[in-house]
Amino acid sequence: MKKILVPIDGSKASRKAAEQAISIAKQFGSEVKLVTVVNLPSEEKYAFFGVNVQNAFYANRKEMLKELITQESKMLKSIINTLDYADIKLDKIVLEGVAYEQILNLSKEENFDLIVMGRRGFSHIERFFIGSVTQRVISDAHCPVLVVNE
């Protein structure tokens, strides 16, 4: 096992997943990559309620995206500062898009051997209505997925 991917969303579960991935990496001499994904809400969300934000949305999209990437980078750095990753290669990346799609694409493109990710513990009803990034990754990943509960 050479490469481990860890999706991070700032939750307690994703922090625990990062710790678990580091532990595994130390045992196998693996490298670890932390990934977080930013996704701007679409204007369709607001149009459903009769609010037209298209012009404002597109005018400020670059600034909003830049700020989100900055904040997510800070979050990743903060988490990295709490990890004991001596003697392993640790990298991070911030991507834009739909979280599960970006995680799956990255894992396949960079040929990761394992994905370690957290699960927040939504109820069955909450997962039904809002979906679950973890569930989508488990269903479609090309490699094993280790799920760490909150």
Task: Please describe what this structure looks like.
Belongs to the universal stress protein A family. The chain has a single domain, classed as 3-Layer(aba) Sandwich (Rossmann fold). It is of the alpha/beta class and 150 residues long. The longest helix has 29 residues, at 54-82. It has a five-stranded parallel sheet, sandwiched between helices. The protein is built from six helices and five strands. Helix content is 51%, strand content 21%. The mean pLDDT is 85.
Fill in the keyword field for this structure:
150 residues; Rossmann fold; five-stranded parallel beta sheet
CATH architecture: 3-Layer(aba) Sandwich
CATH class (first level) name: Alpha Beta
Please tally the β strands and state the result: 5
Mean pLDDT over all positions: 85
- What structural class do you assign from the helix and strand content? alpha/beta
Number of helices: 6
Organism: Sedimentibacter acidaminivorans
Subcellular location: Cytoplasm
Pfam families: Usp (PF00582)
Family: Belongs to the universal stress protein A family.
Quick summary:
With 150 residues, the protein is an alpha/beta fold. The protein is built from 6 helices and 5 strands, in the order E-H-E-H-H-E-H-E-H-H-E.
SSE blueprint:
Elements: E1 3-7, H1 12-28, E2 31-38, H2 43-47, H3 54-82, E3 90-96, H4 99-109, E4 114-119, H5 124-130, H6 133-140, E5 145-149
Parallel strand pairs: 1-2, 1-4, 2-3, 4-5
Helix pairs in contact: 4-6
